[in-house]
Write a structure and sequence with these properties.
Elements: H1 6-37, H2 39-42, H3 49-62, H4 64-85, H5 88-94, H6 99-141, E1 153-157, E2 160-168, E3 171-179, E4 188-199, E5 205-218, E6 233-246, H7 268-295, H8 309-317, H9 324-329, H10 333-399, H11 406-430, H12 436-440, H13 442-459, H14 467-486
Antiparallel strand pairs: 1-2, 2-3, 3-4, 4-5, 5-6
């Protein structure tokens, strides 16, 4: 019967506590960065707490793929750094317990986490990303909260600026309104001693009631001559004037179906189906375009000195070599000009056709590429968790420093390196410079040898971070180089 030994439970408890703490800290830091990026969509919109809590929840779930590898790296570094700093790791090795035996409960746990990360990215992440981006698009269309300040222009209404000198309860005093909704050349300026602002019952329109004022309207587009002094305008004096402005204050959600065909809203199976179906369309379009280009003759049936192209075809069928330069040089000057112009026109036509074909082909190819990148991303997340554990655990055993000092510095450096490499590979794949496989697995291919190297060094108790060792290696290289030069 399988029994959990005390050393396994001890190692697991030490790691799991730190893992939960670091995971929460990573989520909090990444959430702050995400909110700072989307602060424009949230501030000044008058959004209720229910919508804000929804936004935080979806954003938190969407940040799990980035926070999970970083938390595993930091927790494994701190766990084995603490064990090494307190000489617990040394005592375990002295008792005949190998490093792999010490890491065994964590390897099992991280393997379970990797499997769970894949199912999270496959089943949970598409739903949360769809809801999050639908909510972000809805927030972007939400009108800002209406609150006219005193002594400065309010520009929350599209095409209209409002200035108020003073407020008295519901009355606005000394108002100035600049209306550029019809264009800058047809601007309207209104001033009034006082006014009131209220919304219609359906909260879709803003009603401005102005009292004792006048308006000036520029009618530049209606002038007859180009003289600056002949620009017409209209002046109006009023006791009461009411203006109805389109200003929807309700929060209208977009339908989630707008993202139904996007790669962020699909799981692994749906991505594979979309890739297969659209790849067939792209291949058929490529074949059709290739046939069309082949069928377009470059020379056509031009008459050269009264002889048609069939003569050259007969010569070709008779296995005689046709020299285009000699045929061209045998023409008179007018025929040369005519043939040259015809060739230039056909070359331009061919170039335009190829550019059009490329543009028509970019849409399905780009669609397939985005789906392939997303499909690889669901796998690279799980693999990154495993790689970061085999980097953090042996590195912590080597440096033997616990706490939040050295582990955090090393973790941040390693994660920045991973993020730069991963982002570089993603951009290379997105710009069609690399294949989706090469771009998305670049970071894993770079960090995997580092993890294997550190694990090997930790198992044999080698000093990786000892500067004296590297100085000795450098001196040996210099001595050998000098011997080769002296020879």
């Amino acid at each position: 019967m399988f029994r959990i030994k005390k050393i396994d439970s001890y190692i697991f408890k030490r790691f799991f506590t730190l893992f939960l703490m670091t995971f929460m800290i990573c989520i909090l830091i990444l959430l702050m960065q995400f909110l700072w990026k989307h602060v424009i969509e949230l501030v000044g919109k008058g959004i209720g707490w229910s919508v804000l809590s929804e936004f935080f929840l979806y954003a938190t779930f969407s940040l799990v793929p980035m926070a999970l590898p970083l938390a595993i790296l930091l927790a494994s570094l701190m766990t084995f750094g603490n064990l090494g700093e307190n000489f617990e790791l040394t005592a375990m090795k002295a008792a005949g317990i190998s490093l792999f035996r010490i890491m065994r409960p964590l390897i099992i746990f991280i393997s379970i986490v990797c499997v769970g990360a894949f199912f999270f990215a496959n089943d949970v992440l598409p739903v949360t990303q769809t809801k999050l981006w639908t909510l972000i698009f809805s927030l972007r269309q939400k009108s800002p909260e209406f609150d006219i300040p005193v002594g400065e222009f309010y520009s929350g209404i599209n095409g209209i600026n409002i200035y108020v000198r003073a407020k008295d309860k519901h009355t606005l005093k000394d108002m100035m309104i600049y209306d550029f909704s019809s264009g800058f050349d047809n601007a309207t300026v209104m001033v009034s001693d006082s006014g009131r602002v209220q919304f219609t019952k359906d909260n879709k329109y803003l009603k401005l009631s102005l009292y004792d004022g006048e308006s000036f309207e520029n009618l530049k587009s209606q002038r007859i001559s180009n003289s600056p002094s002949s620009i017409p305008y209209r002046r109006e004096l009023f006791k009461t004037k009411e203006i109805l402005i389109d200003f929807d204050t309700k929060f209208n959600r977009f339908d989630e179906s707008i993202l139904s065909d996007q790669h962020v809203s699909k799981n692994f199976k749906q991505l594979t189906q979309s890739i297969d179906s659209v790849s067939k369309i792209a291949d058929a379009r490529k074949t059709g375009q290739a046939k069309e280009v082949v069928q377009l003759h470059y020379l056509g049936r031009e008459i050269i000195q009264g002889k048609q192209l069939e003569d050259s075809m007969k010569l070709k069928s008779a296995k005689k070599i046709v020299n285009a330069d000699s045929i061209f040089l045998s023409l008179n000057q007018d025929a040369m000009i005519r043939v040259s112009r015809s060739a230039i026109d056909k070359a331009k036509s061919m170039k335009d056709q190829i550019q059009y074909n490329r543009m028509m082909l970019n849409e399905p190819v780009g669609y397939v590429l985005r789906h392939e990148i997303e499909r690889h991303r669901k796998l690279t997340l799980s693999f990154a968790c495993l790689i970061f554990f085999f980097i953090g655990a042996p590195l912590g055993a080597i440096i033997r420093k616990g706490g939040l000092g050295m582990p955090i510095v090393i973790s941040v450096i390693m994660f920045i390196i991973y993020y730069i490499i991963d982002n570089t590979g993603y951009k290379m794949a997105r710009e069609f410079l690399w294949s989706s496989f090469e771009g998305m697995w670049l970071s894993s291919g770079v960090l995997l040898p580092i993890g294997i190297f550190l694990t090997y060094k930790a198992v044999i108790d080698a000093s990786v971070l000892n500067p004296e060792q590297y100085i000795k290696i450098w001196n040996m290289i210099k001595q050998r180089a000098n011997r080769i030069v002296n020879r």
